[in-house]
Specification:
heterotrimer; B: mainly alpha; about 0% strand; flat; C: alpha/beta; D-Maltodextrin-Binding Protein, domain 2; 2 domains; six-stranded mixed beta sheet; three-stranded antiparallel beta sheet
Chain lengths: ~500, ~140, ~375
């Protein structure tokens, strides 16, 4: 396998293939930086062009895009508090407070270094687990997937701050919103009032933009502020500081990256929760964690390390089983078919060279993406110093454009405005919004896997070893966080 | 709008959702109904626990209402003239009235927004919402 | 007041634009070259990267090539309501000028067949341009008592994993009902890929995959002995008979499986229902349509171009990867095959709805 790996590296380092990696990185950065657009849009963009392309070059292009979207999407998350794509949602928790404290450059630098490290670690991880990946994926049946979704839901506690009851109400709202539209396994459309827009449910990008972006912009405008309220002059050496932050939390980076690969790797859980889980675990297991949520740099490093690693993990079920682990890998799958590559067990035998090329491209694209982002971060960070009234019209337009690309119907724009307005009221009443998003993202997983487990196993699945292990992890994490918050109260 | 009012509203919404779920066929009913029932109970709990008067610092509805009107106007204009044109007009008008920008800057912003969106749209193959009189499409620009 | 200028100029621009648009519209169609200077849009009712999208994008350049120079063929993805929205948009909002094509799959024809209320399109208003069939193979795990077809019919430990009782799974579900198999059907998996993983995990032990997925992911399992192929759904030919799948000529078709299990030739409303869902779901898996009231010269030109594309060796090799190596139904032929499905008689319809109601709790 080592020999094959070097052969694949040789393929990658030909000028034509490298130039396609660079092209892919360019496209990925562009769609990543625009709120609401993500890897799915970027890859869809490339798809028409890969008909008739050389497979190596086409793969370099597609993977180049997928690899760096979660590097670039940090810009809006940190600078504007707007999730750049579904992978950077948790970054807003601490990244945006840092930007408001005038430390945008530092937060961005830390995020980019963490992204790069995470991406490279992700690539190494999938290389290492490749031989045993199939049995590992097969270890997760419906009951195990259900318990993983519950583990994700348990993160609601830490993300609710000092309002646990309200956090749970919001999580329940998210679970209910996730049930809008087609019910699994039966041709029935719930809570649609006959509106075809709602048949496929509310698009995640519209919900995320509405929940976080619109209320923030409205408040900034009403207060007549700029995003950075302190430190109106760029701090010197902030990029270096970001690098130091990442080095100081190197174990956090490794841990979060491995977590990211793990979650991405499990089919059907939905890559959109990985950053929240990673954030929640970091907040629960770090020392002196009281600063999380108000500008702790580790709250940026953890989700950023894992969301790039996730794309690597998500490739495993995509390549070996033909089931997408994230939105972007779903499009990648379409690209494979066009190239005449059928994902399946043969990706480890006949097509091993392709698999290895993908892994190398992933690692290299992460490095390129980070360098590109770092080189412009100082310039882009100045956006935080522009008064809201001068920034807002452009942001609003970009967000409408982003929201509209979800299903390309007027419903997207209306849903964005309605959700945003409601979210403003919730925020004003001190209801935490991240739990709503988590509930929404996990809703389908919970319902689907609960039904499958009960229909298949009755209630005996509760005794499955995998279920017991994940339950124990959930309990330990919840208990740990309760202890942490109690200690914080006593202080 | 305080936490209490929100809690009352959420309790009502969850209860309504539970009632609506009751009419669904069995397989589609169980999950949303139980989520709604648990949600209603939790919302009622926050209702009971919410302090009678709670002040969260931040702008009031009357302070943000103006901006909601702006966004509403942008959407309406988009429906009439198409998104690129509406956005250009919106950027200019907003900068002039809210951003206290000079006329030159406003026109510049309008041009930058319109051209920027068209370039972006062409590069990323983005689609614009259908409009009554889609100006850029009629001009063959998108 | 320079800032008012864009708005002041706007009416002028609008007038100019309207004038330009007016000049373009209303021209007569040139019978010899009915598409010159036009853009043909193919509506795909699913997101980029799906099977329908890949098929449309694969064929678009070949349609363009064979429609002659000066014609552009573009793919447009109209999303929503699991494929229904795209059909509604095509039927209700697009002009019948032959410049809009609609790429359908089982997700469009099965809800239509069942009378889903959201469906506002009628295949009787469409003219067939090109049809391409697909097939499916039913296989079982050797962990069951099943060794061959005969033992499949007697087995009592079968667990089938599917997605939805009214999607493509309807075909195997109807097949299992006709064979009177003792099978527990667990529906609700996220897709056929997830259902296949469940099969590999042992969560289920009976499954089917469409031909390309079977060749890529199940054939290796058959080689290593962890999956046993049982039968194919078969293909409905021009005369309405169910015949062996040309991609798997060594496997019995469902008709043969029925004869083996039941001991006589299949007939009756259940059998007609099977053929209808088979055509809607598989034999007419990917169809390209335009409006039937489009200018006849354009329909003819589209059919000719599609036939030429379907014979283009470059496209054929691409299509073999995408569709699993089936042939094509050309123009009217595609329509004939398809119409047979949609003319489900009352008894078969009742049989089908009864099956969904009694065994799967679905009332339509």
């Amino acid at each position: 396998m080592i020999e094959a790996a070097f052969a694949a590296l040789g393929t990658l380092f030909t000028p034509s293939t490298l130039s396609f990696v660079l092209l892919g990185v360019g496209v990925g950065l562009m769609v990543g930086i625009l709120p609401g657009l993500g890897g799915t849009v970027g890859m869809s963009l490339a798809l028409p062009f890969i008909f008739g392309m050389d497979p190596d070059q086409a793969i370099a292009l597609l993977i180049g895009i997928a690899a760096v979207v979660h590097t670039a999407d940090t810009f809006p998350s940190v600078l504007l508090g707007v999730p750049g794509s579904s992978g950077s949602q948790a970054t807003i928790m601490d990244g945006y407070p840092l930007a408001r404290q005038g430390q945008a450059s530092r937060a961005l630098a830390a995020a980019f270094f963490a992204s790069m490290a995470g991406g490279v670690i992700g690539a190494v991880c999938i290389f290492l687990v490749l031989p045993v990946a199939r049995p590992m994926v097969l270890a997760f049946g419906s009951p195990e997937l259900l318990m993983l979704a519950v583990l994700g839901l348990s993160m609601v506690g830490i993300l609710s701050g000092d309002r646990p009851a309200r956090g749970m109400v919001m999580a329940a709202s998210g679970l209910l919103l996730g049930a809008v539209g087609a019910a699994p396994a039966t041709p029935f459309y719930r809570f649609t009032a006959g509106n075809l827009y709602l048949y496929d449910g509310i698009p995640l990008a519209v919900l995320a933009l509405g929940l976080f972006a619109l209320p923030e912009i409205l408040d900034l405008l009403a207060k007549g502020e700029r995003i950075a309220t302190e430190g109106t002059q760029p701090a010197r050496g902030s990029v270096l500081q970001g690098l130091k932050d990442v080095l100081a939390s190197k174990w956090l980076v490794v841990r979060s990256a491995v977590l990211g690969v793990g979650v991405g790797f499990i089919p059907g859980l939905g890559g959109s929760v990985v950053d929240w889980i990673s954030y929640g675990v970091a907040a629960r297991t770090s020392r002196d964690s009281e600063g999380f949520g108000s500008g702790d740099i580790r709250g940026v490093i953890a989700p950023e390390s894992s969301n790039n690693a996730k794309e690597g993990g998500a490739l495993i079920p995509t390549l070996l089983f033909g089931i997408p682990g994230s939105g972007a890998t779903a499009v990648l799958l379409g690209g494979f078919v066009v190239l005449g590559l059928q994902p399946g067990p043969r990706m480890l035998t006949d097509n091993l060279d392709v698999t290895l090329l993908i892994i190398w491209t992933l690692a290299l694209a992460n490095v390129f993406g980070t360098l590109a982002c770092l080189s412009v971060s100082g310039l882009v960070a100045r956006l935080a110093r522009v008064p809201a009234a001068r920034l807002a019209p452009f942001l609003l337009v970009i967000m409408l454009v982003g929201a509209y690309q979800s299903t390309r119907s007027w419903g997207d724009l209306i849903a964005f405005l309605v959700i945003g307005t409601l979210a403003w009221f919730l925020r004003r009443a001190d209801y935490p919004l991240p739990p709503l998003l988590i509930g929404f993202v996990l809703s389908t997983s919970v319902e689907r896997n609960l039904f499958l487990s009960v229909e298949r196993y009755g209630w005996s699945w509760l005794g499955h070893p995998g279920v017991l292990v994940i339950t124990a992890m959930t309990v330990a994490l919840t208990w740990g966080s309760m202890r942490v918050s109690k200690r914080a109260e006593q202080r | 709008m305080n936490a209490r009012a929100i809690a009352v509203l959420l309790t009502a919404l969850f209860t309504a959702a539970a009632a609506v779920s009751w009419t669904f066929p069995p397989r589609a009913r169980v999950y949303p109904m139980w989520v709604a029932i648990v949600g209603a109970a939790l919302a009622a709990l926050t209702w009971l626990r919410a302090p009678r008067s709670e002040t969260v610092s931040g702008p009031t509805l009357s302070e943000i209402a103006r901006y909601l009107w702006w966004i509403g106007a942008l959407l309406v204009t988009t429906g009439i003239l198409g998104l690129p044109t509406a956005s250009a007009l919106f950027a200019a008008a907003f900068l002039k009235h809210e951003g206290k920008a000079g006329p030159g800057a406003s026109v510049g912003a309008a041009i930058a927004t319109g051209v920027g969106l068209l370039v972006l749209g062409a590069a990323l193959d983005l689609r614009w919402p259908p409009a009554l009189i889609d100006v850029t499409r009629l001009l063959g620009l998108s | 007041m320079t800032s008012e200028n864009p708005r002041a100029r706007l009416p002028v621009l609008l007038l100019a634009a309207a004038a330009i648009a007016g000049c373009q519209a209303g021209g007569e169609i040139d019978e010899a070259a009915p598409f010159v200077g036009e853009t043909v849009e193919m509506i795909v009712p699913f997101r980029e990267g799906g099977g329908s999208d890949a098929y449309a994008r694969a064929i678009a350049p070949y349609l363009q090539k064979h429609l002659g120079s000066g014609v552009q063929v573009r793919v447009q993805n109209v999303l929503g309501a699991s494929g229904i929205q795209g059909g509604n948009e095509f039927a209700l909002r697009r002009r019948p000028d032959g410049l809009t094509l609609f790429v359908t799959s089982g997700s469009n024809s099965l809800p239509y067949l069942l009378g889903e209320p959201a469906v506002r399109y009628d295949f009787n208003d469409f003219a067939g341009i090109l049809g391409s069939p697909a097939g499916g193979v039913v296989y079982v795990s050797p962990s069951t008592a099943v060794r061959d077809l005969a033992s499949l019919c007697r087995a009592s430990d079968l667990i089938y994993g599917g997605v939805s009782p009214t999607g493509l799974d309807m075909v195997p579900l109807v097949a299992f009902a006709l064979l009177d198999l003792d099978v527990q059907s667990i529906l609700g998996y996220q897709g056929k890929g997830a259902a296949r993983v469940a099969f590999e995990q042992g969560e289920t032990n009976l499954d089917y995959q469409t031909s390309p997925a079977y060749l890529a992911s199940v054939a290796p399992l058959v080689d290593e002995g962890t999956a046993l192929p049982m039968f194919t759904f078969g293909q409905v030919d021009e005369s309405g008979e169910v015949v062996r799948d040309p991609v798997f000529p060594e496997l019995p078709s469902f008709r043969e499986a029925y004869v083996t299990c039941v001991g006589r030739e299949p007939a009756g409303p259940g059998w007609d229902a099977y053929k209808a869902v088979l055509v809607a779901g598989f034999s007419a898996q990917k169809n390209i349509w335009t409006h039937s009231d489009a200018p006849p010269a354009r329909i003819e030109a589209l059919r000719t171009a599609a036939a030429a594309a379907a014979a283009d060796p470059e496209f054929l090799s691409l299509a073999a990867e995408l569709l699993g190596g089936y042939g094509f139904f050309l123009g009217p032929e595609a329509e004939v095959v398809f119409r047979r499905a949609t003319s489900l008689d009352a008894a078969s319809r009742e049989w089908l709805l009864g099956l969904l109601r009694d065994r799967h709790g679905v009332s339509l």
